[in-house]
Amino acid sequence: MSDTTYEAAAETTSSGKPTALLYTIIGGSIATAISSFLAWTWTTEFPGDLTIYGYPAPLQILTLVGAIVTAAFALSALGIKGFGWLTPTGARQATWLMALGTLATTLYTAIAIVVELGALVDLEPGAGIAVIAAAIPAIAAYQLPDDAHKAAPAKKLPSWAEILIITGVFAVGLYVVTFGIDTDDKEPQLFIAYLILVTFSTLALFKSGLADRLSAITANNRQVTVTATLAAAIAFPFIQQSGDTYTLIAVNILIFATVALGLNIVVGLAGLLDLGYVAFLGVGAYTAALVSGAASSAFGVQFPFWASVLAGMAASLVFGVVIGAPTLRLRGDYLAIVTLGFGEIFRIAMGNLDGTSGPKITNGPNGIPNIPQLEFFGYNFGEPHTILGVTLGAYANYYLLMILVMAVVIVVFSRAQNSRIGRAWVAIREDETAATAMGINGFRVKLIAFALGAALAGLAGTVQAHVNTTVVPENYVFAGPVPPNSAFLLAAVILGGMGTIRGPILGSALLFLIPAKLQFLQDYQLLGFGLALILLMRFRPEGLIANKRAKLEYHDDTADQAPTGPATAKAGA
Questions:
Q1: Going by DSSP bridges, is the β-strand pair 379-380/375-376 parallel, antiparallel, or unpaired?
Q2: In sequence order, what are the residues at sequence separation of 6 or more whose Cβ sits closer than 8 angstroms to the Cβ of residue 338?
Q3: pLDDT the model gives residue 314
C-alpha cells in the first residue's frame, strides 16, 4: 500500500465506521476479559477447576491474556498514545489474528467441557458469555480496512531502553515456555488451548511488524541478547516448583536440539540428505555406556567424564568418515538411500551383538542398563544439590550440563558456518558442479561436513546415555512416535529453518514438546504431524526461522516472469 493510500485509511479510521469497529473490538475484549472471572462449569470433574468466581483457572487465563492483547492492538489502531509501537506495519491483520486466536481458545475450552462431561448443560452461563464476547472482536476486526504499510524507520532508543526491552522480552518468553512445559499431562486440554493461543499470537506479532522491530533491537545488542538468552536458559530449573517433573522434558529437548544442529551442518549447510543420522547419536551413547563402568559393559572400564565425551565424539567421527568415504560421491536420492541403510544396519547390528548372533558387546536387544551417573570434579549429577537456596535434582543437573554442551555446539556451528569451509559447503549445496569448477574439492568438503556433524551427534549421545541410564537399539530407529529419530531430526531442521541456528532449536522444541504433551492421541500423533508438515510446506516452505537467502528463493514472485526492461524489449524485437 502506498503512503497516500495509507494516509487515507488512517483518516478514515479516525472517524466513521472503522472507529466504531475498533471501539467494538475494545468493548468485546473487555467483556471477554471479565468473563474469564466467571465460572464456566459447575463441576470440578473437568480438569483445571473452572467453577470458581473471581479467580481464573489456567484455561481462563489464556482467554484473559488473549483479550488484553487484542484490546492493546485495537488501541494502537486508534492511535492512542503509548500503543503505536505495537503495530509498526499495520494493526488490522494483527488485531484480527489475535481476536481469532482468543475466540478459538475460548471456543475450544467450551467444546472440551461439553465433550469431557458429556452434556451441554454442564456449561455455566459464564462459558456462553465468554464465547459470545470473544466472537464480537473477531467479527469486528475482520471488517476493518487494510492498513498494511511499510514500517517507518524506528526511532533510535537509548541503550538502556533497548537493554530493558530485551530483558522484558526474554522474561516473557521464559514465562511462556515454562507455562507450556509445566502443563500437567493429565490436562491435555490446557496444552492444546495453549498451542492455539501461542500460534495465533506468533502470527499476530509477525503481521504487526513488532517481531521484526524486536529482531532489529536484538541485532544491535548481540552481547546483551546472548547474555539474556543464557540467563533465561539457566534460570529455568530454578523456577520449577515441582522439582524434576518437567525438567526431564527440557533436558531431552536440549539433547534433541543439539543433534539437530549437527544434522543442520550436513543438511542445512552442505545440502546432503542424511536419513540415518540418528545412528551417530547411538554410536556416541553406546560408546559412553561401554566405558562408563556399567556392570553389563563388555569392557569393564570406567572413564572420567571428559574422556567418555572424547571417546563418544571420536567413535562417531570415525563412523562418519567410514560411512562417508565410500558413499559421499553419490548425490541426491542415492545418498539418502545409502544413509537410510546405514541407520538400519546400525540398529540391527546393536541388537545382534549379544553373544549369540555375534560377539557379546552390547547385550543385544536388552541393551546396557544401570549406567552410572556422571561425576565431574566431585559433582555427582545423580544427586540433589542446593544452589542459591534452590535444590536441584538429577535432571536439573543434566539440564545445566546440556546448556553448556549446547553452547559449545552453537559456537562450533557458528564458526564453521562463517569460515572458508562453511562457504564451500554453501557453494556445494547450491551447485556442486559449479563449485567443483571453481576449484572446490567437493568430496573432501562433504566428508568434513559428515564427520563434524557425526561428532556433534556423538557428543549429545554421551550425555543421553547417562540421562536415560540405559541404552537399547530401539531408541535409534528411522521413524517412530517418539523423538529423537532420523525422521524427526530431519523434520526439526526443515521445520525450524535450514542453515540457521535458532531454527533447528525451535523445531526440536516443538517436535519434542508437542508429542510429549499429546500422548493421549497415541497413533494419531503421526497423522497430525504429517498434516502440520504439509501445511508448513505450503505456506512457509523456508521454515519458521529462515535466513534471507531462503526467503528470497521461496518467495520471489518475479522469478517466473519474463523481463520487461528496454534491453529485453530490444532483444525481443
A1: antiparallel
A2: 327, 330
A3: 92
